Amino acid sequence: MSVISMEKDVEGLTLTLVAEFDAPIERVWELWADPRLLERWWGPPTYPATVEDHDLRPGGRIRYHMTGREGDRHHAWMEVVSVDRPRALRVREGFADESGVPLDGMPVGTMDVTFAEAGGRTRMELRYAFDSREDMERLVEMGMPEGIRQAVGQIDALLAEPVSS
Amino acid sequence: MVVSPVPPADADLDRELDELFHALADATRRDILRRSVDGELSVSRLADAYPMSFAAVQKHVAVLERAGLVTKARTGREVLVRTDPDAVARAREALDRLELAWRGRVDRMAEVLAADRTTPRRGRDA
Q1: Helical H runs in chain A?
Q2: How far apart are CA A146 and CA B92, in angstroms?
Q3: Which of A126, A147, B9, B79 is the most buried (most CB within 10 A)?
Q4: Of B30, B106, B112, the CB nearest to A19
Q5: pLDDT higher than 90, residue A13
Q6: pTM score, two decimals?
Q7: Whole-angstrom distance, CA of residue B49 vs CA of residue B32
């Protein structure tokens, strides 16, 4: 089993996972640093990822899209905050329009990834934090089928109205 | 984190949607939702607010409950109505979804590493 531990902090809105791979640190780093390798694991088989731009330097951008079975494309962006090859990586990420411009009102989060090698095996620790509770909520809504999302939108709107007297 | 955007539709979803929209289509039920945000009102206290019978209000609450819009909690002799979904449940769902996405990713990372071990990539750094 590659996943060693998985912690979910509901109050802090973070997910922390530790995984261990039977490979040297450079190989695990390459999974992130090589766009062709990144494509092989980022998206699930039902939503494979295609990396369009990949600039793994501080301030650099990674643009990609995921393609659904109906040919539907979902674009996303990452912004590289810091890189310490091959030990650490911090990126912010979110959803984008077709030209890679971050979409307003879509969830944004930050990933901190660290790598450490011991005895030919590499431990990867990843901490994902939503920017805010609103970002977290938006992710939940996005995963909802469209009809449910509309209904939830209605609920939010009506809960914001004053109670009739 | 970008996860699979939309799960596939199914028959359950249609039924769920019917119940949701039906529940929301009534002014009294929408009002009950608003009043129950704090979860401090019992069905009988709610009933006092409307010119209708206790049984009629109880029915409205049952419709909302079936649609997953409110939950009921018994405290002593009272049944308190609370509007869902509450923030903690949503946070948990978001993190559950991230967990699922990342478990898949870690598995695929291990597969890619294993595949590359048996067929080494050539000449990349040469």
Answers
A1: 25-33, 35-41, 133-143, 146-160
A2: 21
A3: A126
A4: B106
A5: no
A6: 0.65
A7: 9
